[in-house]
Amino acid sequence: MGRPVEYLRADAARNVHRIVEVAARLLGENPNLAMADVGIAAGVSRATVYRHFPTREALVAAIHMQAVEQGEAALQACRLEEDSATEALRRLCTAWLDVAERYAFAQLTTQPGTGFDEPTRERSRQILGAPLRALYERGKAAGEFSPTLSTEWCVRAFGALLLAGARAVADGTLTHEDAPDAVFRSLLEGLRA
C-alpha cells in the first residue's frame, strides 16, 4: 500500500524547505557549489534537487523567497505593536538576525548572480518594510527615537546593521548569541542621536 497523497505532499514540502535552507548556507560558503552537493548535504538525491529547482537561478530565487517568508513569520511573531517601540525593535533585531544568518544574507548579497531579483526585492519592501517603518514612526511619536532622522534612513540603517551582524557571525567576530544585542545597541544609539 502506498503513502497517502497528503503525506507525499508534506514530504515534498519538507524536502524543498530543507534543500533551500541547506543551499543558502552552502552557497554562502561556496558560490560555485554543484547542485548535486546541495542534494547530498540536504539528504536528497540530485534528481530531487533538479525536480524542484531545474537551474541554479531557480534555487537562488527560492532561497530569497523562503527567506522573505521566514522574515515575515518572524515579524509577526515579534508583535511589534506590543510594548515600547524600543522593546519591539529588540525582538525584531533578534528574530531577523536569525533569519539573515540562516539564509546567508551577508554572503549571498555580495556574490554575483545571487542578489534579490526586483519582484522579490519589492515584495520584501512591502511585507517587511512597511511594519518596520510603522515601528519607527511609533518610536518617534513616543519620544523613544530621534524625530530628526528620516524613517527611510532608519530602515536603511537597520538593514545595514543587520547585515553587518550576520557578517560578523559568519566570520567569527561575534557569536550567534552576542550578535543580536550588538546590532540592537548600535541601532538604538544611532536612533536616539
From TrEMBL:
User: Mind listing where the DNA-binding region sits, in residue ranges?
Assistant: 34-53
Arranged from A to Z, the UniProt key words for this protein are:
DNA-binding, Transcription, Transcription regulation
The answer to whether UniProt assigns keyword DNA-binding to this entry is yes
Among its keywords, does the record have DNA-binding? yes
Which InterPro entries does the entry link to?
Homeodomain-like_sf, HTH-type_TetR-like_transc_reg, HTH_TetR, Tet_transcr_reg_TetR-rel_C_sf
GO function terms (MF aspect):
DNA-binding transcription factor activity; transcription cis-regulatory region binding
Q: Can you tell which superkingdom this protein's organism belongs to?
A: Bacteria
* Domain HTH tetR-type residue range list: 13-71
* Any one Pfam family match given in the protein's UniProt record, by short name: TetR_N
PANTHER family recorded: HTH-TYPE TRANSCRIPTIONAL REGULATOR BETI, HTH-TYPE TRANSCRIPTIONAL REGULATOR RUTR
Protein name in the entry: TetR/AcrR family transcriptional regulator
